[in-house]
Write a structure and sequence with these properties.
The complex is a heterotrimer of chains A (337), B (293) and C (321). Chain A has a single domain, classed as P-loop containing nucleotide triphosphate hydrolases (Rossmann fold, 3-Layer(aba) Sandwich), CATH 3.40.50.300. Chain A is globular. The longest helix of chain A is centred in the middle third of the chain and has 18 residues. Chain A is built from 15 helices and 11 strands. Helices cover 38% and strands 21% of the residues of chain A. Chain A has 337 residues and is of the alpha/beta class. In chain A, helix 5 runs parallel beside helix 7. A 7-stranded mixed β-sheet of chain A has the order 6-7-8-3-9-10-11, with helices on both faces. Chain A has a 4-stranded antiparallel β-sheet with strand order 2-1-4-5, covered by helices on one side. Chain B is mostly helical and 293 residues long. Chain C is of the alpha/beta class and 321 residues long. Chain C folds into 2 domains: 225 residues, P-loop containing nucleotide triphosphate hydrolases (Rossmann fold); 70 residues, no CATH class. In chain C, 32% of the residues lie in helices and 24% in strands. In chain C, the strands form 2 sheets. Chain C has an 8-stranded mixed β-sheet with strand order 6-7-8-3-9-10-12-11, sandwiched between helices. Chain C has a 4-stranded antiparallel β-sheet with strand order 2-1-4-5, covered by helices on one side. In chain C, strand 9 and strand 10 form a beta hairpin. Chain C is globular, with a radius of gyration of 20 Å. The chains are: A alpha/beta (337), B mainly alpha (293), C alpha/beta (321). Chains A and C meet through helix 7, helix 8, helix 9, helix 10 and helix 11 of A and helix 6, helix 7 and helix 9 of C.
Chain lengths: 337, 293, 321
């Protein structure tokens, strides 16, 4: 345990923050009601750091990713890149696109079926009018592991395998020489044997280019595979975050504990009851209390926090690298945190 | 770089042609169209507008088809064959240009309405719906009457009243394309409205548009004939004005069936040909139909 | 005696450009009340195999070998008998619960449909049976009156399972039943499937690309690659101590959280699944195999014994024995 803590400190001291969300809120109108998809998030991604954002569908993780990319505007709060608040004027936003790039889940859908690999990778450089287009495309393809690159230039997406398509998408992002990749479920629709290769590619890009990444996923195994830090999201808020070794071996938030318990290898299963989370109806008190197994089992009442769980709002977790959890019950065992 | 890319494009084109050739109806239509258009283009080399002049009518009046006049003559002794030949120029010109106008308006409005989801898209769709519920024939008739009869006004009248259907079609396709993840990827790469609509949306709606254009030409030719028959004409001989004249001069009571039948058959053949080509294009270009076949 | 027996089953798709061998000589057997997991990636033939079991393949597919269900050959059955088998003895749960349900009909009616169509129950009895089935899959009985869009993804998958259970089949074939479901919901559906196997003695064939899920639910595991079974055995042994390098790669693809070996070290296989029209010579896996020998490119591999109740199609296994 001491070793991992030392590692966590190393993370916090050596990596300056590159991309940051500060008290971010994003709301939508959904069937006449307001859905608070992102409801107060602080999150920082350091230079060269890989952060996994974990949660179930509907927890707001994709909205958060889109907002960080500037594809969605926050209702309040701000996105900061390199210390500066993101400017939504089209020229500034276009310049921002060269710094932060996107990789989507479904590589078949992410590529225009009528464009060749060359055209797909050259799209970014063409939009930004970069010189030496051919050189840029060649480099990007070979960095993404498609070698020799010119053999792929004239292929169409349907002629490639799933793994190759995802490499083309990654090459398209790399062609702009970004500093941060935001990957939304990058391997969820890929075959099991290819999955590891794509994840290894992300790690290699970090090692070779110093690329940071925010990987949005529902898969804790993926976080364990590649991430330095993990942030667990529930109903629009980060409920637990910290170094992967700490959060995934000793989760403190009951929601993280439940997620861990349903992994196939885990000895005891906590299956949550109650309605699935609905961002148009966020419960008062702790937003997880209606489904919380610690509260349901009476352990919270024993500790005397059940009242707080039901009625007292929790602080929004700050964007710090250390392990932290937004839970009244967990706060008892570690008053300092 | 360009030569292998061009080679690929040529390959795609030849594959398309091979697919198209398997549609016998489409091929028959295409041959008919090529012949009709070629004849219309070369007409001035052999005949002139004189064949439509009442004063230069030299033959016998109301002559039935014979060896010298294969399709007979009209009330002024003009040759029906030559008039149908010369009239094809006006009919086809109006058909093509009106369809082009309608498709261009429909394309711009449809893509804009599909791409800009906010108030602009909403407003464009309201306008489209408004035009869609207007009885188009009546509107065209009124427009042609107000603007006066010339080829240009007939083209305008047809184009302005028929674009909403194209706009609806293009908007639906635009919405489908824009829901694809590669649009999201393109936006994240920094693409603006112009890039997304021209690089991603247009190539994806183009096949649909091509098929719909051919059908549009057919319907424009029919509309032109109808307008001419109802009295709003370009003041030039077209198949529609010939039908109108046959009615005005009582061809039916004269027993001059050829005067009615020949222009009618010409319209039918060309419209049929366009429709066949359009359907074949649709089947070849629309992957969903192709898979079902 | 075994409920289902596959003997040298092969499936060939005929397409314009030639013949595609999707399944190439698979022999497996399943005992009554047992659960068999079939693992493999897309193109391995696992879904084709599942469809072949109930003759659900399109017409351009040619199926060879024998598929014995309770001693009766599915491939030579008359159509009427086949239809009866599909409902009453074996039913299939597909992946993607969104498309398996008719959006304009109440789910209760859809569950009751096979009962009424096959005159297995009067409307009243059918309604009672629907309530019972919904309860069995963990949904309240009033959900019978819901339309599919009113249900969540997990609830829809439960309804699909209830439909499969309607005529009390002895065998359920589940094709990626939990793909596209959230982890929490996936766990619930898997728990439900496990209970059905344990408490009702229903046999199960479950198909997935996730070896860890299969190991969790099934007793036996068969790993398929390029249309063939490359490893077969008790699931925990196959998962934790695979003999075939491909099974090892699949098992490593989904790491155990907390295992220091996989921390910051994702493992995958280089290369791509082979094109079934141009299969490599010798062992089809040899171009991607990390431990391939020279002879793998030429020698024929077959399932060799690899310990108690286990077989694997790898030259290293043959050498060891």
């Amino acid at each position: 345990m001491t070793e991992t803590q030392a590692a966590a400190e190393a993370v916090s001291t050596t990596r300056p923050t590159l991309l940051e969300a500060r008290d971010l809120h994003v709301e939508f109108a959904s069937r006449g009601r307001r859905a608070r998809a992102v409801d107060g998030v602080n999150l920082a991604i350091g230079a060269g750091e890989i952060v996994a954002l974990v949660g179930e569908s509907g927890c707001g993780k994709t909205t958060l990713a889109r907002t960080l990319l500037g594809l969605e505007r926050p209702t309040s709060g701000e996105v900061r890149y390199g210390g500066n608040v993101l400017d939504y004027r089209s020229k500034a936003l276009k310049a921002y696109r060269r710094q932060v790039q996107l990789v989507l889940q479904d590589p078949m859908g992410s590529l225009n079926p009528r464009q060749t690999v060359y055209e797909a990778v050259a799209e970014g450089p063409r939009i930004h009018g970069l010189p030496d287009e051919r050189e840029v495309v060649t480099t990007a393809l070979s960095r993404a592991g498609l070698r020799p690159p010119d053999r792929f230039f004239l292929r169409y997406p349907h002629e490639l395998s799933g793994g190759q398509r995802q490499r083309v998408v990654i090459a398209g992002a790399l062609a702009l020489d970004p500093k941060v990749l935001i990957a939304d479920e990058p391997v969820a629709s890929l075959d099991a044997s290819v999955r590891g290769e794509i994840l290894a590619l992300l790690l290699r890009l970090r090692a070779d280019l110093g690329l940071s990444a925010l990987v949005v996923t529902h898969d804790l195994g993926l976080a364990w595979n590649i991430a330095d830090r993990v942030a667990v999201m529930y109903l629009g808020r980060i409920v637990e975050s910290g170094p992967v070794e700490q959060v995934l071996t000793a989760p403190r938030h009951p929601y993280t504990q439940a997620l861990m318990s349903v992994l196939p290898e885990s000895p005891e299963r906590v299956v949550l009851t109650g309605e699935p989370p609905d961002p148009t109806r966020i419960p008062g008190g702790c937003r997880f209390h209606a489904r919380c197994q610690v509260l349901a089992s009476g352990k919270a009442a024993e500790a005397g926090v059940d009242g707080k769980c039901r009625s007292e709002l929790l602080q929004i977790l700050p964007a710090v690298p250390e392990a932290q959890a937004a839970c009244h019950y967990a706060a008892l065992s570690q008053p300092g945190a | 770089m360009t030569s292998p890319a061009a080679a690929r494009r040529r390959l795609a084109l030849s594959r398309f042609w091979a697919d198209f050739r398997t549609h016998r109806g489409g091929m028959a239509g295409l041959v008919t169209l090529v012949v009709a258009v070629a004849l219309a283009l070369v007409a001035p080399l052999f005949i002139s507008a004189d064949v439509t002049s009442v004063v230069s009518g030299t033959g016998e009046r109301w002559a039935p088809p014979s060896l010298s006049e294969p399709f007979g003559t009209d009330e002024s002794g003009r040759s029906i064959l030559l008039m149908v030949w010369w009239g094809s120029r006006t009919s086809l010109l109006i058909g093509f240009l009106a369809a082009l106008l309608s498709v261009v308006i429909g394309l711009v409005v449809g893509v804009a309405a599909g791409h800009f989801r906010g108030w602009l898209g909403g407003a464009l769709m309201r306008v489209t719906d408004w035009f869609l519920v207007l009885p188009s024939l009546v509107t065209a008739l009124v427009l042609a009457a107000i603007l006066g009869g010339s080829t240009f006004t007939i083209i305008m009248a047809i184009g302005i009243t028929t674009w909403p259907a194209t706009a609806r079609l293009i908007r639906a396709q635009t919405l489908a394309v824009e829901a694809r993840p590669y649009i999201e990827r393109s936006k994240a790469l920094g693409a603006g409205h112009w890039h997304i609509t021209t690089r991603h949306v247009l190539p994806n709606v183009a096949p649909l548009l091509l098929a719909s254009t051919t059908l549009e030409v057919a319907s424009a030719i029919v509309t032109e004939s109808t307008l001419a028959f109802l009295g709003a004409s370009a003041n030039k001989t077209s198949w529609g004005t010939m039908l109108r004249a046959s009615y005005d001069f009582g061809a039916a009571t004269q027993g001059a069936w050829w005067y009615i039948l020949i222009p009618g058959l010409a319209i039918l053949a060309v419209v049929m040909a366009f429709t066949l080509v359009g359907r074949a294009l649709e089947a070849v270009l629309n992957p969903r139909l192709r898979r079902a076949a | 005696m075994s409920l289902l027996e596959l003997d040298d089953v092969s499936v060939i798709y005929r397409i314009a450009s030639g013949e595609v061998p999707a399944v190439r000589g698979v022999s497996l057997s399943l005992d009554s009340g047992a659960a068999l997991g079939v693992a493999g990636e897309s193109g391995s033939g696992k879904s084709t195999l599942a469809m072949a079991l109930l003759r659900l393949l399109p017409r351009d597919a040619r199926v060879g070998g024998r598929i014995l269900l309770d001693g009766e050959d599915v491939l030579t059955m008359k159509w009427g008998r086949m239809r009866a088998v599909r409902w009453a003895e074996a039913s299939i749960v597909f992946q993607g619960a969104q498309h398996g349900l008719n959006p304009v009909r109440r789910v209760g009616d859809q569950i009751a449909e096979p009962l009424l169509v096959h005159n297995l129950a009067k409307p009243d009895a059918a309604r009672k049976r629907v309530a019972e089935l919904l309860e069995q899959v963990g949904l309240p009985a009033w959900r019978a009156r819901s339309y599919p869009h009113e249900l969540s993804g997990g609830q829809r998958q439960r309804v699909m399972i209830a439909m499969a259970l309607a005529c009390s089949p002895r065998l359920i074939i589940a094709d990626e039943p939990t793909t596209a479901l959230d982890v929490m919901v996936q766990a619930q559906v898997l728990t439900l499937i496990k209970e059905l196997v344990a408490e009702h003695g229903i046999s199960l064939i479950m198909i997935s690309h996730d070896l860890s899920v299969l190991a969790d639910v099934c007793d036996q595991l068969a790993v398929m690659y390029a249309g063939r079974v490359v490893e077969h055995g008790p699931s925990h042994e196959v998962f934790h101590d695979a003999r075939h390098p491909y099974s090892r790669a699949l098992a490593a693809a989904f790491p155990t959280v907390g295992d220091p070996v996989s921390r910051l070290a994702p493992k995958g296989l280089g290369g791509d699944p082979p094109d079934p029209m141009q299969l490599p010579t010798g062992c089809s896996f040899h171009p991607r195999c990390p431990v391939a020998l020279d002879e793998c490119a030429t020698m024929d591999v077959e399932l060799w014994a690899a310990g108690a109740g286990r077989t694997a199609a790898c030259v290293h296994v043959q050498e060891a024995s």
